[in-house]
Write a structure and sequence with these properties.
14% of the residues lie in helices and 11% in strands. Strand 2, helix 2 and strand 3 form a beta-alpha-beta unit. It has a 3-stranded parallel β-sheet with strand order 1-2-3, with no helix packed on it. The protein is low in regular secondary structure.
Length: 102
């Protein structure tokens, strides 16, 4: 019996691709209309999931519920270039207005 999860190296379900906007035949993805993004219990290291926090609009609040910080913006220019830009991850600094860690 296989659990209802996707193992490393397996194809993601078509529904995931459709709702994230990663599909060629995407109708209305969920992320652009998201009012609050809640991320729970993850290291945000494995792609494509580590990039999902950047799919919401710039004014959408993002809450990370985790034991430790995860998915923070990289200040390394090479890492930022490889990930598509330095402003993609969580920002927990003092000037932050949209990201929270619980």
């Amino acid at each position: 019996v296989k659990p209802d999860i996707v193992f490393f190296g397996e194809q993601l379900p078509q529904r995931f691709l459709d709702l994230t906007g990663l599909s060629q035949k995407c109708g209305d993805p969920d992320f652009p209309v998201c009012d609050l993004l809640i991320v729970m219990g993850t290291s945000l290291v494995v792609r494509p999931f580590c990039n999902l926090v950047s799919f919401v609009n710039d004014d959408c609040p993002r809450l990370l519920v985790n034991r430790a910080r995860a998915g923070e913006c990289r200040h390394n220019p090479i890492a930022a270039l490889l990930s598509g830009g330095a402003d993609k991850g969580f920002k927990f600094d003092a000037g932050n207005y949209r990201d929270a860690l619980c």
